[in-house]
Design brief:
Length: about 90
């Protein structure tokens, strides 16, 4: 048998053994369920909140952004105007 296949089999068996050990205890099982729910919810929550106000007024909080606008970059200001219009 190839070494790669043997390592995969041993790794899989170790994973199954670890998961079985964790799931035997009800407290650990509940903790794992809660962690899984938190991770799943963090991926499902789509934060569409964009810092629109910061884009419209670059000099208020973000000095680096204000410097870019002073140098001619108008992307943030244009984006702010488009979002506010719609």
């Amino acid at each position: 048998m190839r070494k790669r296949n043997m390592i995969s089999m041993v790794g899989g068996a170790a994973g199954v053994a670890t998961l079985s050990y964790i799931l035997m205890d009800k407290n650990r099982r509940d903790m794992l369920k809660n962690k899984w729910s938190e991770v799943r919810n963090s991926f499902l929550n789509e934060d569409t909140e964009l810092p629109i106000e910061e884009a419209g007024d670059p000099g208020r909080d973000n000095l680096e952004n204000a410097d870019m606008v002073a140098e001619g970059s108008q992307f943030g200001v244009d984006y702010y105007n488009k979002v506010k219009e719609s």
